[in-house]
Amino acid sequence: MSVVVVVGTQWGDEGKGKIIDVLTKDADVIARYQGGHNAGHTVMIGEEEFVFHLIPTGILHRGKICILGNGVVIDPCALINEIKWIREKGIEVDNNLFISDRAHLVLPYHQIYDIKDEKRRGDNKIGTTGRGIGPSYTDKIARIGIRMADYMDKDLFYERLKTNISEKNLFLVRYYGHEGFKFDEIFDRFMEYRKEIEGYITDTNIILKESISQGKNILCEGAQGTMLDIDFGIYPFVTSSNSTVGGVCTGLGIAPGKIDRVIGVVKAYTTRVGEGPFPTELSDSVGMRLRDQGKEYGATTGRPRRCGWFDAVVVRYAAWINGIDRLALTKLDVLDRCEKIYICTGYQYNGKILKEFPSSLNIIKKCQPIYKEMDGWIEDIRGIDSFDDLPENAKRYIEEISNIVETDLSIISTGQRREETILLEENSFLNNDHSNQYKWRDT
Ligand code: GDP
Ligand code: IMO
Ligand code: MG
């Protein structure tokens, strides 16, 4: 048995979906612990691309249990649409999906607040996905949120929703000039949604407790990334949850001592969507080339991702915060055409060299990256599945990343597809029981 956590080490979109899909072969349960439908996790099977926003990517594999934990915020409409879409692809969604009765709802007023707040911020906007995620977590912390368990209790839901809508309308109408939400309309609509999702709602903590005591393998699917974490990211240019490993404990009810391994997913360069400082950003043609080669457009909003060189200060910081045991390096093939590749080893700030990621927004904005230059390999490595077959310069680049981040690698991804992967270890779940051997899903 083991509990393995997959976290993003940069600003999200590191390729967590692909890595989780590869690891799912040895997992019994796949669980999301935070975030909402702001996430976009891509899995490529053959020529078909699947983008998941809420439901764990493990749903693609028959016979696996998928969980949305209490730390996730859920828009029932987005959930229903995703279930519908998955079913249309011929994938079973029934006794394999369980949603925590402690998870909070994302309601229509959350999305409107998200959009209006961003507009009001003007040049200081965060660049959110506009899905209502921040406002839903705001209500959770303010203790006026509505949990799935409250939603399943018609009278309680009626009462909470009525109070919330009248309070939200006060500000929305007066300050934002919005027409306001009509309680009856939202209540009726949500009672319709309820019929479609009530079968999935349960106390997922009990499923996890039983699974762990039965010796099953649990894979915790992180969304976003360390630099978007509400506590450890570049505040306020962050998401509203703990995307780092601590979120597993609070968002699933798995105690720290039960976590056996943390895998940090890291892109071979850096990207970010939305606003906020980004020390290694390339605003020139090199950055545009990375965007083109890496098809760096948001999986949720379609926005172009900002691109830059690998920032080892960021990834070393992520390794410490998350207690990362192994790295999974993705998108190495995107660097195939680069003659020179750069790794940021520290920042120059005010005549000093910083090796640790600073907290002050003003300092971060003024940090100048210090680069180590490396030779590229100018060779097509896409699809290579053995370390020995990589060009020497690619091996040097990988080894440099591992050394500078002081963490071993267990996976190298050389393409979007499952099979375009170099596995440096047999099994990330640290057990030798192969009775649960993986079979590719027939598609
Ligand atoms: P996530 O949010 O961390 O799951 O990442 P996204 O799915 O948002 O973005 C990663 C993108 O890179 C997706 O389009 C993946 O299909 C793609 N991808 C993942 N690994 C590789 C790789 O090794 N090479 C290439 N070329 N693309 C990859
Ligand atoms: P995955 O799981 C990349 C970013 C948004 C914005 C900030 C706050 O696919 O890696 P929010 O809507 O969460 O309030 O936006 O966080 N963001 C992501 N960036 N990948 C994601 O998820 C993201 N989820 C949110 O662009 O900068
Ligand atoms: Mg993504």
Give a brief rundown of this model.
This protein is α/β, with parallel strands linked by helices and 443 residues long. It has helices at residues 16-23, 76-88, 108-121, 133-141, 148-151, 154-174, 183-197, 204-213, 246-252, 285-294, 312-322, 361-366, 392-405; strands at residues 2-8, 29-32, 41-45, 48-52, 65-68, 73-74, 97-100, 104-105, 201-202, 217-221, 261-267, 270-272, 306-308, 310-311, 326-330, 340-349, 352-354, 368-375, 408-413, 421-423.
Architecture blueprint of SSEs:
Elements: E1 2-8, H1 16-23, E2 29-32, E3 41-45, E4 48-52, E5 65-68, E6 73-74, H2 76-88, E7 97-100, E8 104-105, H3 108-121, H4 133-141, H5 148-151, H6 154-174, H7 183-197, E9 201-202, H8 204-213, E10 217-221, H9 246-252, E11 261-267, E12 270-272, H10 285-294, E13 306-308, E14 310-311, H11 312-322, E15 326-330, E16 340-349, E17 352-354, H12 361-366, E18 368-375, H13 392-405, E19 408-413, E20 421-423
Parallel strand pairs: 1-10, 1-11, 2-5, 2-10, 5-7, 6-8, 7-9, 11-15, 14-16, 15-19
Antiparallel strand pairs: 3-4, 12-13, 16-17, 16-18, 19-20
Helix pairs in contact: 2-7, 3-4
The structure holds guanosine-5'-diphosphate (GDP), 6-O-phosphoryl inosine monophosphate and magnesium ion.
